[in-house]
Design brief:
Blueprint: E1 2-11, E2 14-24, E3 29-33, H1 40-48, E4 55-60, E5 63-64, H2 70-76, E6 77-80, H3 92-97, H4 113-126, H5 141-154, E7 159-163, H6 171-187, E8 191-195, H7 199-205, E9 208-213, E10 216-221, H8 223-226, H9 229-236, E11 240-244, E12 251-255, E13 275-277, E14 281-294, E15 301-312, H10 322-332, E16 340-345, E17 353-359, E18 362-370, E19 393-399, E20 402-403, H11 405-425, E21 429-430, E22 435-436, E23 444-449, E24 455-456, H12 464-491
Parallel strand pairs: 3-8, 3-9, 6-7, 7-8, 15-16, 19-23, 20-24
Antiparallel strand pairs: 1-2, 1-4, 4-5, 9-10, 11-12, 13-14, 14-15, 14-23, 17-18, 18-19, 21-22
Length: 492
């Protein structure tokens, strides 16, 4: 639909953008990214016909922009600039009605019922219908932005050009506006070309992105390619990290601060100094936030936490809202659930085993509770009951160092392999199948990293860190099984 060929645009003797090539397909949501001064707004002005190319061509449906009369072009292209201005204090409805001007005929430009219907629909879509009698100068910046978007939609263009459309909008209106534009591309055959400063919004809503750098096109591609760390860091001159959005298949970019915040003691070494064991809870309170991957009742997934809890519950514990029950228990002990990984166990907490392991610069701290009365062989899953029971083997592995994403996953795998090896070494059986057990019905695990010190790109069994984790989890799990069995034996 829109084809830009070797486009160069400048003012007087200064060239702002040079030799840019890209195309935009019908019904595409196309985003333009780049730092201030990279030429984004100049490019948008050229696409609207506001300034003429110094070199190159802009084709709209196979015709150059110069081939269209101003009124023909206005029927096809609507523009929402970054700062919309107005000379007169029109009402909201009057302002939106101006979008119908290219479609009105005759000397007196009468408003038709069709014009009225389209204006009302555009106001409803942008959420300004309740403001239609208000004057523009009575509105907030965000409200005025939505009014001018309604005006652009009322124009019924084939393509809409937007310069930072979410400027002045709060979070909910940013989402609503972009959802509306995305819906229009799918249902109304609208093509959207928009400048973004927010890289993450652009990634979520755009089909493709153009990343500009000093008037040049750094790359034009789908978000997964454009948002690569090396592209963003080179163009924006700042350190960033890329991660996947947790719910949709789009990348997200985060800033890396120059300093490390929240670390009060860079010399902090993990160990039993910060561990406290009572009849109710095993609590580890770290003086710094640790980066974690866990399967806790609270604090599951990946996050940053300072407190770690293994809470005792009775063997026949039954709570329909176990997460809220855990939150309530944490609060009763003055632990903030937002910064706590919380697990449950039916094991007597006096049976806990913990050990620090060090080898050269490598250091870990392992904490295990390991009741095996309800041990199961996961491969004999047909015999496993679906009833929820509190986990009885909970494993914590805390590591001095900075783990990559791969290292977190490999540390989890290594820990699990070591746990299973300990169960087999101790001849723990699944009584339902008669086979060696691999765990209990709801085991939990925590891998935590100080995220300072030694960098660990990997933590598999062949690496020094992986070997230390394997040794630590294996030995500590065996000790925990011994403690559990001795207590159970003394009670029988």
């Amino acid at each position: 639909m829109l084809d830009v060929q070797r486009l160069s645009v400048g003012y007087e003797e200064t060239m702002i953008i040079e030799h840019i090539d890209f195309s935009v397909e019908k019904r595409e949501f196309f985003g333009i990214l780049g730092p201030n001064g990279s030429g984004k707004t100049t490019l948008l002005k050229a696409l609207s016909g506001g300034i003429h190319p110094s070199q190159g061509t802009i084709l709209l449906n196979g015709r150059t922009l110069e081939d269209y009369s101003p009124k023909e072009l206005a029927k096809m292209v609507a523009v929402l600039p970054q700062n919309s201005t107005h000379s007169f204090s029109y009402s909201v409805k009057e302002t939106v009605m101006l979008g119908r001007y290219p479609h009105q005929k005759g000397l007196f430009k009468a408003i038709s019922p069709n014009d009225e219907e389209i204006v009302q629909r555009s106001m409803e879509q942008t959420g300004v219908d309740r403001l239609q009698s208000r004057k523009l100068d009575e509105l907030s910046g965000g409200e005025r932005q939505r009014v001018f978007l309604a005006q652009a939609l009322a124009q019924e263009p084939q393509i809409i050009l937007l310069d930072e459309p979410t400027n002045h909008l709060d979070l909910s209106y940013q989402k609503n506006l972009l959802e509306l534009l995305k819906k229009q591309t799918k249902e109304m055959n609208l093509t959207v070309v928009s400048i973004f400063h927010d890289l993450n919004l652009a990634s979520m809503y755009c089909d493709r992105l153009l990343l500009m750098q000093e008037g040049l096109a750094r790359t034009v591609d789908h978000p997964e390619e454009v948002m690569k760390e090396e592209h963003i860091q080179e163009v924006y001159k700042t350190e960033v990290y890329k991660q996947a959005h947790p719910h949709i298949a789009k990348p997200q970019i985060g800033l890396m601060p120059d300093g490390v915040y929240g670390i009060s003691s860079p010399s902090f070494i993990i160990g039993e100094k910060h561990l406290k064991v009572t009849d109710e809870m095993i609590v580890y309170k770290s003086p710094i936030h640790l980066k974690c991957m866990s399967s806790g009742v609270v604090g599951s997934g990946v996050g940053w936490y300072k407190s770690f809890v293994n809470r005792y519950v009775p063997p026949h514990y039954d709570c329909s809202d176990y997460q809220q029950d855990m939150v309530n228990a944490l609060k009763q002990h003055d632990l903030d659930p937002s910064f706590t990984v919380g697990m449950m166990t039916a094991v007597n907490l006096k049976d806990v085993e913990y050990t620090s392991y060090r080898l050269e610069e490598h250091s870990i701290f392992v904490v295990v509770t390991a009741g095996v009365g309800n041990a199961v062989d996961v491969t004999g899953n047909d015999a496993i009951t679906n009833k929820m029971e509190p986990g009885t083997i909970n494993t914590w592995v805390m590591i001095d160092g900075r783990l990559s994403d791969e290292a977190f996953i490999e540390a989890l795998v290594t820990s699990t392999e070591a746990k299973v090896r300990a169960l087999h070494d101790e001849e723990v059986f699944d009584h339902r199948t008669g086979t060696l057990a691999t765990g209990t019905p709801t085991d939990s695990i925590l891998i935590a990293s100080t995220h300072i010190g030694t960098d660990y790109p990997f933590a598999g069994s062949i690496t020094p860190l992986g070997k230390l984790i394997g040794k630590g989890v294996f030995e500590t799990t065996k000790k925990a099984i011994h403690s559990y069995r001795m207590r159970m034996s003394s009670q029988s």
